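name: query_chain
kind: protein
chains: 1
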Amino acid sequence: MQSASVKRTGAALRTLDLVYVAIGAALISVCAWITIPTTVPFTLQTFGVFAVLLLLGGAKGTMAVLVYIMLGAVGVPVFSGFNSGFGVLFGSTGGYIIGFVFMGLLYIAVTKLFGEKQPVKIAALAVGLLVCYAFGTAWFMYVYIGSKGPVSLMTVLGWCVFPFILPDAVKMALAALVSRRVKPFIKNGLQQ
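structure:
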């Protein structure tokens, strides 16, 4: 009798985890729709990724990012500008979207190595963001050069990275503040 209730509780927790992952993917999607179009659009997408990683932790947060990317890949309009499809992922800005996965993986690695304290989490997000910038910029250059011709690294950094550093730092700080307020409610939900 007791083992049946333990199994039922374990299944409920797994179901609740899936719900949180789905909500995380939805949050990233809604944040991606809030956009200012430029060469690389300004969106709240990175805020969504930061918030999901801080709220759900590395594993579930990264799963939410993967679900978000898969939804967009199969045609659900979750990317900025209500876009979707493999064309977006293989387009010039697709490397930044894929870079979110690397951000999540780095977040997992850093928090496992150094713990779950807030400064460690922020450092993990910052390092992950740098890797996302690097991967996305390399991808942007590859696609851009292939379709339009040569472009210098400094030009691409001026389009794709430098304008985003300060806004992304603000988004990271806001995500940290929001997560500190909301996380206790998520923990309570996981314990019920």
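note: The two ends are 20 Å apart (CA to CA).
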